[in-house]
Every structure is written in structure tokens, then in C-alpha cells.
Protein 1
Amino acid sequence: MNYEITGHTRLTGLLGSPVSHSISPLMHNKAFQHLGLDYVYLCFDVKENDLKSAVEGLKLLNVRGFNCTMPDKTKMCELADQLSPAARMIGAVNTVVNDDGVLTGHNTDGVGYMQALAETGFSISGKTMTLLGAGGAATAICVQAALDGAGSIRVFNRRGRSWEHAQKLVDSINQNTSCKAQLFDLSDETSLRSSLQESDLLTNATPIGMCPNETLSPLPSADLLHEKLLVSDIIYNPRETLLMRQAKEKGCQTFNGLYMLLYQGAEAFHIWTGVDMPVDLIKKAYFSA
Ligand code: NAP
């Protein structure tokens, strides 16, 4: 299909630092080209202190929208004119759409994870989930799972930087959704064992096991796993983490973070264009194992 930059081409892109490693320009530009949509996606290396000026500039230039990455996701909440319900509850924005000068902040990370989960044939409705971590990605997943009807979410986090945030997260879920959320110390092996016994889904949203620490697992022992558990790791480098290998040995179904990455982008694409991203094409081009 003919694809040219014209006087009408709408700009989308990614703000953050560093951004040059991002797969987002490849995904979005290939999808725009394939569908003949008059948009382009570029990366802008913007330091945290310059985010406000960059956002004001993009608004002035009437760009269609943009993604932002850590650590800008929290700050972007204050810079958007309005927030989606999920972005408000998560307290972080990764996608902004500009409608005639009004910037709406969304968070598509949770939707991305839930879409990847749905693709395995799993329905979250009424299910029990054990979630490891309470950082940015874990928060988005936790909120979206609760909004999508999870029955119970047990968050396991270490008593560190994000412990207070984790307490507020479970309180907010208990107050605003029908899901029952509880917080536990990740080092409490007894609670972790009984939580996993009662769970349908385990999600690792900590970086434990990510390259270059591939020899680490977030679990103290593989014996905590059982074959009926669906085990997911939102890490995608390596494609198969030690946790996933431990789970496979126990007979569990597993998936990694690649399709979460794909579907958070597909959701942003839809927000900007109103059109579905051709995900099969994008999977084939950039997400094959
Ligand atoms: P984050 O905000 O820094 O949160 C990390 C969480 O893991 C925090 O709860 C942190 O606890 C905990 N943690 C970190 N190191 C730990 C350790 N050694 N032991 C126990 N807990 C530990 O990071 P994030 O942005 O949520 O990212 C988390 C992981 O998800 C990363 O591997 C990232 O690459 C991946 N990710 C994947 C996608 C995707 O699309 N697939 C999207 C986003 C992120 P403290 O607060 O105490 O440090």
C-alpha cells in the first residue's frame, strides 16, 4: 500500500528516556502502513524534568497522541486534562489521546495483560489470582483484573519501596470493586503456599528472573506450584523464565510478557485511530518466538 508523509499526517509517539530500544515505532508504523492510515509514530528522548514542556509542545502542535514510559507514567496523570477510570485508579498513564486540545490519559498495560490472558482461553471472572509485585505493571494488572471481575487477588510484595503503595492499592480495590484484595509479605512462605493452593492464576510482575538474572525465580520453591495453576510472567527477556520452566515441569500452562507488550500497544493504537491493530501481522513480524 502507498504510504507517504503528507501535510495531513498525524503524529503519535513515545516520550521517555531511554526510548531508542522501544519496539513501539516498529509495531505502530507497520500497522499504519498496512492499513493505509495517515499517521506516523516516532520516539522522543525526553528527560523527566522536561516532560511538562514536551507535553505542552505536543499539545500546541496538535499531535494525535503519545505513549509515555517510566518514570513519566505517574507525572503524566497530573499533566493530562482528564483520566480514564482505570488510569485514575492505577495512578499512572501510559497512553494519551489529544482530542482538539483536550488530553485524556489512559493506562493500557492492564488491558494488554488481560488480553494476553484471554488469548490462553482463561476467563478471570470470579477467579483467584496470586500477584507477585506491586510496582507500576503489577498495579495496572491488579486494577484491570479487579475491574474485569476477578474474585480475589492476593498481592505479595517485599516490605520495601512500594509496600505503602501496595497497601493503598488493595484498599482502593476493596473500596471500588467487588474483588477482594489482600496484601502479604513476599517472604511469608506459608501464606504464599496457601495462596497458590487456592489460586487459578499466578502472575509474576517483579523483575526477578529477567535478563541478566535468568537463574532467579520469584518463588522459594517449585513445590509451591500445582498443575491446575496458569502461570504467567510479564518478563519477555528471556522468553522463558526460570519460573515458567519450573511451572512447565509441574504440568502448568504458562505464558510470558510478549503479548502484554503487543496488546498494550494495540489498545493505544485503537484509542488514537478508532481502528483495530492488525495483531496477527504484528505478531508475525516482531513477536514470533
Ligand atoms: P517497578 O515499578 O520497579 O516494580 C517492580 C516490583 O517488583 C516492585 O513491587 C518491587 O518491589 C518488586 N521487586 C523488584 N525487585 C525485587 C526483588 N529482587 N525481590 C522482590 N521484589 C522485587 O517495575 P515495573 O515497571 O512494574 O516492571 C516490573 C517487571 O515487569 C519488569 O521486569 C519489566 O520489564 C516488566 N514489564 C513488562 C511489561 C510488558 O508489557 N510485558 C510492561 C511493564 C513492565 P520494591 O518496590 O520494593 O522495589
Note: The longest helix spans residues 258-273.
Protein 2
Amino acid sequence: MIRSSIRLLSFCAVFTYVPMLFAQTEKQDLASLQKSIAQLVPVPIKTELSTLPISEQQALNKLIKAAHLMDTLFLRQVSANNESLQAELTKRIQTAPKGTDAQALAQAQLDYFLINKGPWCRINHNKPFIPNVGDKKKQGNFYPEDATQEEIETWLKTLSEQDKAQAMSFYTVVKRNPKGQLMVVPYATEYATELKEAATLLEQAAALTQNASLQKFLKTRAQAFLSNDYYSSDLAWMELDSDIEPVIGPYEVYEDEWFNAKAAFEAFITVTDQAETKKLVQFSSYLQDIENHLPIDKKYKNPALGKQAPIRVVNVVYNAGDANRGVQTAAYNLPNQERVIQEKGSKRVMLKNIQEAKYNKTLLPIAKIALPESSQKNISFNAFFSAILMHELMHGLGPHHVYQKQTTVRESLKETYSAIEEAKADISGLFALQYLMDKGVIDKTMAPLFYETFLASTFRTVRFGTSEAHGKGMALQLNFLLQDKSITINKQGQFSINYQRIKKAVEKLTQILMTIQAQGQYQQAKQMLDTMGHVTPAIQQVLDKLTQVPVDIHPEFIIQ
Ligand code: ZN
């Protein structure tokens, strides 16, 4: 999975209209919709750009303009009716009597429409929040509205391998010709007006920037918009070494719920975070040392770690399209084209200011409820973000192949793999931070910050549900540490770290998980997840108290 997905909670209002009680319903619907909107709490997102050279600031402006076009295209990809519905809502706001519930409702509907990029609530199973829009179509607007999945599958079987590849390409839509037969249309044709405009803006940005690698990416991406061939621009993106780190174009395929084949338009216009990048370089330089000191049998350790996948830490200036809808992306792994990944690997990008906004609006309020007063001083964004960086790095350490067998850990652990791997990255990340403190690389006074911020963040992750790997893996860790009594619960149901035990317990769990991986022990992995990978009553009583804490943030980008 490329992005952490979130299955959540039922907050969205579902709309049923009784005409006789229209005014009354309007008021109720407004209140209900406002409650939904509050679950995605608005946060101003601002990135300091004044340190960038003027040339780069000017290039950024062009990129933001191009990003706006990704919003337009994404709206159209989600639903053929989105653009007319947006116009309709805007008209309703203008024509409704000022200050009435009707006007306020239309405004709230438009606000929430823009947050969800359509009239369906993404944090509640895509339930419609505007009357008479019907259900969200699983095929998006990538296939004909009147087609069925079976019709497309049958048609695919009639095609040559080459035509089939085109039909299932990231960068084409399937339409009907005038005779009603299915046909393939490249994005460059289907979205020609917007893509030509976007290409011009990227060309202009390329002419402004002084950075050669950025220039190359922008020029090749502009060509891709026109030619429909994204290969060389994806390669150029892997070679980017620039203050500005943009993602712009069609990337993720989640919006096509039929085949996961069609890429949705998005933009992450970001700039590199220099301080965090330094921290990352520092952590990275100790990876072999950490591997050598992992608490596992020596024969499972890798004496020569290969080249690790690149990681960048950036701050978002502006996100658009698929990159700005519903729950916000905190990190991404790109590109998605297999051919590029095989040649160049992929790159992980962490969005620091988005993570910080999530931390402020969700983790801090969770810590106030889940942990006692005495712990509050130890909840720290710096510790939170260091743990995230370490989590990412630790994915590269530990066993990836089963000892003395020709199989990978992923193959051996089957459906348990993701949850075990996520739990391993968390807990061995804590182990690594402790190791670096013991070594004097990180200040020892950080210890309570790391452990207690970790404890608070376990509830944030488990809250997303244990049907998903991160949540399941986190429940496993929390239950293990509770059983070990390295985490304790007071009479008020609040959780604390037992400093007499935690260090050893973290080592022990790291050892258990990595040994399961090294030996490819599927049964042990399954048993561990069956007994500990779920929400126990002690955890549930905390989750029950979190209903007032927002689900996520809604960024309001402030551009200087
Ligand atoms: Zn992970």
C-alpha cells in the first residue's frame, strides 16, 4: 500500500428529505453537516519561502497555478456531474435570501463538497451529503457511466496484449464511440485543454528556476502532459535535487475502484525542510551500526546493508486534486510505474507541516485524555517526527529474507506480513532511538519524550481501526507492553510508561518480531495478531472518550 489508508467512524450526516418539514429539515441538515465538517478541523498551512531565491519563488507561483488545474481535472475524474454540481451550489448561495438557513446550508454543502472533492463523505464510506446525487460510482468517471465491470472485463478479453495494456494504462480513459463500442482515449486527448495550460505553466516555471534537476523534471513533465508518455519525467523526478520538490500529474489509482488502473490527477507543491533533512542524514549514517546491534541472533543480521531508498522531508506550500481530499496524506511513496521503480527505485516523501498540523489537532487532544497530567509536558512534536523518520528507516533494516531459504519474509508471512512489518518498524524505531541515546548521539533527556509521545500516538493509530495494518500492528504493540506491565493503567483509565521495564520490553518485542520474520514463522505471526492485534476493553475505554477529537485536518493553504 502506498498511502496509509483510514477507515473511519460514522460522522457524516445522511440526507433524507421530507418536503412537508422542509425548513425544519434544513436546519437539522445544516447542524448535521456542520458536525461533519468539524471532524476535519481547518488548519492554516504556511511555509516560509522568503529564504528561497527570487527565481525559485517565481517558479513556485507558476507551479501553484498549474496545481489549480489538477483540482479541476480531479473533480472531473471523480464524477462526470461534479463540475455542474459545483456550479449549481455556487448559484444557490448567490440566489438564496441572505442570512437564511437555506443560504448557510448551500455554503456548508459547497465547503464540504470541496473538502471531499464531490458530494460523498470520504470519512464515512462515501455516504452522500447532498440530496439526490445518488451513490458514488466505483468506476469514477474513467469508464462509461452506463458500462458494467463485467462488460469491461469481457471487452478486455477480446483485445490484443498491446491494446489491453493501453486499455488498462494509468493514463487512458475508456469511453464509447458514436456506435456505442468501447474505446480507449489517452489523458492527453481527454483532458487536452487543462493539460496544455498546465504544460505551458510548467515550461514557464522551468524557465524561471535556476536548479537544473528541477528544470529537467518540469520540462519532461510538460512534454508528458502533451505526449501521454510519463516515463522520462518519472525518471527525472527520482533525480530531483532541489529546494522545490513538486509532484504534479496523474499518480494514484484508488479512485478507480473497479480495476485500480486509472491514475488520478494531483499536486503536492512542496519545499525541502533543511533541518529535518540534516537529522535524516545523521540517523541514516548510523543504520549499519544499529543493524549490528539489533537484539536478534547474529546470523539474522545483515553485515552489509545495501543502498537504502531515498527519503525527503518537505513542507507543503499547496496541495491539489487527489492530494487534497478527505483525510490528508502525511507521506507518499512514488512513482508508481513499475518500469521506473525497477530502474530507479522509488522515493519516500514526508510532509512535515501536515504531520505537525495533525499532531496539534489530533495527537495533543488525545494525549490530554489518554495520559495523566504529569505526562503532558513530555508530549513533543520533535519526538513524534523523529519516531516517524526512524520508523521509515527501520523498514530497511532487519530480516527481509527467510534465513537459509529462498523465500522473502513477505511471501512467508502472507496476510500477516503488513501488520507485523509495521509493528516492527515502530518498536524497533524506539529501540534505535534508545540505542542512539545510549551512544550519546541523541540527548538522553529525550527519553521520556520519545516513550510518552509514542504512547499517546498508539491511540491515534489504533483509532483508525485494526482492520488496517498500521492499526493492527499498533494494537499488538500496546497489548504486548500492557501484558509486560511496561505500560500501566491508573484508576482513571489513563496510561503511563513504567521506566523500570520499558527499555527491556522494547528490546524483547523487537527480538520476537524480527525472529518471526527471519524464520518466516507464519503460525506464530498469526497467533500473535489473533491474540494481541485488536482493541481490548482497556484500550476501548480510552477510544470511547475520544469522540470529540477531530478525525483529521483540513488544510487552508496560506500563500505569501
Ligand atoms: Zn511503515
Note: The chain has three domains: 11-38+80-128, 54-76+137-272+306-345, 350-560.
